[in-house]
Specification:
Helices cover 52% and strands 13% of the residues. It is α+β, with helices and mostly antiparallel strands. Helix 2 packs antiparallel against helix 3, helix 3 packs antiparallel against helix 7 and helix 7 packs antiparallel against helix 8.
Length: 415
């Protein structure tokens, strides 16, 4: 039983008035912030859901930005590839004209000069940068020009012409996440976009008695192939073919050496993992401190050229006035270049379409998640305003009642 005293009524009134003021203050905070969960204790279940919704909404907004960047990036690549196709079409027209045999050598030499200039324009496109200052066709080496022109003299040229175009881009393509655990490749390396022939690498080492002495690994186009102690050449060939890399491996029946063939036109990049020397032992590559330089073993035979190799070959044929060569291998090389480049255009278009579809889906999903978040944590202002008015009315009534029921003290008589 509570003890009755002169201070009891005042204490009870103060306690309930403080609770009422706290409720009014909490409602004011909710109305000013628009969030009814100012403390986790307000609604623990709703607070847990709100945290998950906010996290998912933040990820969706990040995915939306990634897909928007991917679409813009693919647009830039598409524009440059389209222009490259137009240049190759013009080069092909010159090749067809020069292959007729009705022009004198001076005329075909003039055509060769135009082909040389068109090739420089093609290199400029291959070295183009996007709006963010990153190289479009350099793989993950986005601040290094992927192609370098080497000029020199050519028989019949009479001046300095392009004699080689070296590819210095390296590494795998950058990837971006466009949805939960869903990634898309952003880059199209110059070793893919500006290649013409399927590469072939023939090792000059007889590996019929070769056997791996310890565990190791090597990389083909970024795919890691593991080698276990005791593996023979057929085991390595099987591992390469099962790796997913765009190559096929086999054993040369005449030399018993390793043969690597690309399944589509692209520059094959191969290197041993640090601490392993499988490819060196098989006579495919050699150690090189410069990652941009060719690392093929001197005894290996490498076939398969780039778009620029095809154009240089055609130009040299025009300089010689060799109509049969221009009409045969010359035009054939340009056709291979066009075929690969149009295939890469289709690939970029497919990636762009995938990014666009994902972007549209995310833009429909974001409002739905935002609505779910608002239902869990948002404040209904109409209801809150009504409750606030009722609380204020109740507080005023409590204050008026307290003034009447609290007994007077000695101070009330000192007037």
């Amino acid at each position: 039983m509570a003890r009755v005293s002169t201070n009891m009524a005042n204490t009870n009134v103060q306690f309930h008035l403080r609770r009422q003021e706290d409720a009014i203050l909490n409602l004011q905070n909710q109305m000013s912030s628009g969030n009814r969960l100012n403390r986790l204790s307000d609604d623990p279940i709703a607070a847990a859901r709100t945290v998950r919704y906010q996290s998912y909404l933040t990820r969706l907004e990040r995915f939306e930005n990634n897909t928007r960047y991917a679409r813009d990036h693919f647009n830039q690549i598409d524009i440059n590839l389209q222009e490259s196709v137009n240049i190759l079409q013009r080069i092909r027209e010159l090749a067809v004209t020069g292959a007729t045999g009705t022009f004198a050598r001076d005329d075909t030499r003039h055509m060769a000069v135009e082909v040389n200039e068109l090739m420089k324009a093609l290199v400029a496109i291959a070295n183009s940068t996007g709006p963010d200052g990153r190289q479009l066709f350099a793989g993950d080496r986005v601040f290094t020009e992927p192609f370098r022109i080497v000029e020199g003299t050519v028989d019949g040229g009479g001046e300095s012409l392009v004699v080689n175009v070296e590819y210095r881009g390296a590494g795998p393509a950058r990837r971006t996440e466009i949805h939960e655990r869903t990634f898309i490749d952003l880059d199209l390396g110059g070793g893919h976009a500006f290649w013409a022939e399927r590469m072939q690498i023939f090792s000059g080492v007889d590996a019929s008695n070769w056997r791996a002495l310890e565990n190791g690994a090597f990389f083909i186009n970024g795919h890691e192939i593991l080698v276990r102690a005791g593996d023979t050449l057929p085991a390595v060939v099987a591992s390469i073919n099962e790796s997913g890399a765009a190559v096929r491996a086999s054993v040369d029946p005449s030399t018993n050496g390793l043969v690597i063939t690309g399944t589509n036109p692209h520059l094959i990049r191969m290197e041993d993992r640090q601490g392993s020397n499988t490819l060196e032992e098989l006579g495919v590559v050699r150690f090189n401190t410069d990652p941009s330089a060719p690392n093929w073993d001197p005894g290996a035979r490498v076939a398969g050229g780039s778009v620029f190799d095809m154009v240089i070959r055609l130009r040299d044929g025009l300089l010689r006035g060799d109509h049969e060569f221009v009409g045969g291998l010359g035009i054939s090389g340009i056709d291979l270049s066009l075929q690969n480049m149009t295939a890469r255009l289709a690939e970029v278009g497919s990636r762009h379409e995938r990014a666009s579809v994902t972007w549209s889906r995310i833009n429909q999903e974001i409002p739905n998640v935002a609505a779910m978040l608002a239902r869990e944590s948002g404040v209904d202002l109409a209801t809150a305003a009504t409750d606030f008015a009722m609380m204020e009315l109740a507080q005023r009534a409590a204050l008026q009642t307290a003034a009447r029921i609290i007994p007077p003290t000695l101070l009330d008589f000192l007037r």
